[in-house]
Amino acid sequence: MEHVKIIIENCNNCSLDVSAKIGLKLYKEFSIKHPNAFYLRGKVKNWDGMVHFINKGAQFKIGLLPLVVAKCKEFGYKVKVIDTRPKLELPKKPVTKIAQFDLREEQIQAVSSILYNKVENIPFHIGVIDYTVNAGKTAVMVALYLSFKRKLKTLLITNDSDWLNQAKREFKDYLPGEDITFVQGSKVDNWSNFSIGMIQSLSRNIKKYQRELTKIDMVLVDEADLAGSKSYQTVLTHLYNTRVRIGLSGTIYMSKLVRDKLKNMNLRAFFGDIIAQFKLSESIKKGYSTDTVVKMVDANFWYNNYQSEAHEYSEIYNEMITENPTAYRVVLDRLVYNISYGRLPALIVCKFIKHAENLYKYIKKHLDKKYTIAVVHVETKDKERRDIMERFRQGKIDILVSTTIIARGKNFPLLRYMINAADMDSQEKNIQFLGRLVRTHEGKDKAYLDDIHYPGKYLNRHGNHRRIYYQKQNLKVIRLNRGKVTDRSAPDLPF
């Protein structure tokens, strides 16, 4: 039997002590063809079009350790792992209560999975917590920090300024009396024992912050599915002394498509495998998230004779959705129908700015006298965007039209009704949209989602993908205007 020795060099990197034959085999095994290799090879000299996760020096990122060990055993090799890092003192048991809050069973299990996770009997506090909205990710972060008796210098990384402002309120309740540093911009010189930082600020000022980053013992990365980006990689590579590295997300490793294989491996390289999981269907079942009724609204009911010569997705989207007055009427009819049942506030999600702006003007034209209506997208000024978001959160805006910037990190517990008019084919984005809707609130026993299923090339297939996803989440899915399922028409409106 051939032997493989794996050395954990630091909290970022591992190396292989193997024969040249085995090293080459593993090098090839942990290589993935870049999805854009055909276009990029001409721009990168002497590149073979492959992304190699074990380099020619037999080194790899620490998050891949479980996968490398498993693959070596699959090949029939005997594996020995040597850990050269300083020993980390572990608590005997996890914290079960933070401030005045008792942790739920699944939250305690998540903390335990991190504390006592091992690879080949080596303590390995690296992993992913795949938790849906309302599952209590914040409580898990705090409980982990407290389980180590506040002895580990901790950094929580986020990419959303709105979430950062929310965190400033929440963490004061979870960690009363804790000196928390908020790293936003380039003004902070000395970090506290618990710091929360914007990834944009950290990456832009990496030279200034690199000394502080080397002092971090534990890093918690919210929305970890973004960690394959250049800004995250810039920061994470400086955290080579972090014994505890946890990625948190509700949309991690969801796609099994070939096109996402590279993205998934980049994530695993930094954060390893999923070690705790809590899905939306389970959250709804336990009452942590609001039960939601999904209606797949067949736009073909209104526009069944549509003929188009467009072939590219952007052309089809523009013709069928952005510049199609019938598609706007579909959204308005559904909105009016749900308003008649008191389902406000309402959120309408679009993919592109032009679509959002046009739909906003269209709805405002017909409903402005009765309801407060607003629109947000990436071109909305920061101060105005924050103001609109806060007013919508408080229920002071009845109808909000938004692009997909609404998907992450936003908390709208009053939201009862949403229209997905974006034709998204991203499972991750659909999870995020649902996350905005299913927040619990007193008196909110049910939420409602209308998903506009557009006809035509690409669009029809995307709609079918979304329907399948909703069904997998055990949501009640009703198909309108197909078969026997019908809905009463909205009242006539002046045009």
Share in β-strands = 15-25%
- Structural Rg: 25 Å
Give the helix level as a range of percent.
Answer: 25-40%
CATH class descriptor name of the largest domain = Alpha Beta
What is the fold named in CATH at topology level of the largest domain?
Rossmann fold
Low-confidence segments: 482-495
Topology:
Blueprint: E1 3-8, E2 13-17, H1 20-29, E3 31-33, H2 37-40, E4 50-52, E5 59-61, H3 65-74, E6 78-83, E7 97-98, E8 101-102, H4 105-115, E9 118-119, E10 122-123, E11 126-131, H5 137-147, E12 154-158, H6 161-174, E13 180-183, E14 194-198, H7 199-204, H8 206-213, E15 218-222, H9 230-236, E16 244-249, H10 261-271, E17 274-278, H11 280-285, E18 292-298, H12 313-322, H13 325-339, E19 346-349, H14 353-367, E20 373-376, H15 382-393, E21 399-402, E22 417-420, H16 427-437, E23 447-453, H17 459-472, E24 476-480
Parallel strand pairs: 1-6, 11-16, 11-17, 12-14, 12-15, 13-14, 15-16, 18-23, 18-24, 19-21, 19-22, 20-21, 22-23
Antiparallel strand pairs: 1-2, 2-5, 3-4, 7-8, 9-10
Helix pairs in contact: 4-5
Q: What report would you give on this structure?
A:
- The protein is an alpha/beta fold and 495 residues long.
- Helices cover 35% and strands 21% of the residues.
- It is built from 17 helices and 24 strands.
- The strands form 6 sheets. Strands 13-14-12-15-16-11-17 form a 7-stranded parallel sheet, with helices on both faces.
- The model is unreliable at 482-495 (pLDDT under 50).
